[in-house]
Amino acid sequence: MKRKGLIAMLRFFFKSKPDAAVRALYDRAVAQARLPVFYQKYGVPDTLDGRFDMVVFHVSPLIDGLRHPDGTVTPDGQALFDTFVDDMEQNLRGMGVGDLTVPKRMKKFGAAFYGRFDAYRKSVADPDRLAATIARNVLGDEGRATTPQARALAAYYLAVVDAVRAADDMTREFAFPDPHAPAVLPSAPSPVEAIL
């Protein structure tokens, strides 16, 4: 066996567990993503895909915030992503997906994550574009970009980004904003209270 293959195999079997603070941050993101308000008021489909999209929606700004000044992801940011991947794999196995199918599904999850992560990063500076991105990825229809639900989710996402930027130590003290509080998109003339 080549050295590279042996090292990869050893890493697979002897993965180091992420810092407890990173795991706690991931658990807070998942708990936030599961809040009923997103499915009952914001119009997120209460499906496996909808729940996956909400986890990605909450984890993306956290990973993006865990970067060095040069733009590279910090070890905590990588650990957070790795925790997400491990959790997705465990969920697949828990649903009875077989060993031969898991890698194919994980490849699809990875592509979905990176596509959404990149789309959120590119659209965060433009609230209307962010609402369109959220309508396409979370609500399942880019035509819903101007709906109160898409605009409220965009305003909430921006509030999460602001909370990430304001946190001194995200892995230890980060708190998500309240999704029940009315939020306002910078380009919106009034709060999107209609859905809340």
Q: How far is it from the N-terminal to the C-terminal residue, by CA?
A: 59 Å
Radius of gyration: 18 Å
SS elements, strand count:
0
- The helicity comes to 55-70%
Largest sheet data: none
Rounded mean pLDDT is: 82
Encode the helix/strand succession as letters.
HHHHHHHHH
Class of secondary structure makeup = mainly alpha
* Global shape: globular
List low-confidence stretches. 5-11
Supply the number of helical segments.
9
Strand fraction band?
under 5%
Structure notes:
By secondary structure, the chain is mostly helical. It has 9 helices and no strands. Helix 2 packs across helix 4, helix 2 crosses helix 5 and helix 4 packs across helix 6. The longest helix is centred in the middle third of the chain and has 22 residues. The chain is globular and about 45 Å long. About 4% of the residues have low confidence.
Q: What can be said about this structure in brief?
A:
The protein is mainly alpha-helical and 196 residues long. It contains nine helices and no strands.
Q: Which labels suit this protein?
A:
196 residues; 0% strand
Topology (SSEs and partners):
Layout: H1 3-13, H2 20-33, H3 36-40, H4 48-65, H5 75-94, H6 102-123, H7 127-137, H8 148-166, H9 170-173
Helix pairs in contact: 2-4, 2-5, 4-5, 4-6, 4-8, 5-6, 6-7, 7-8
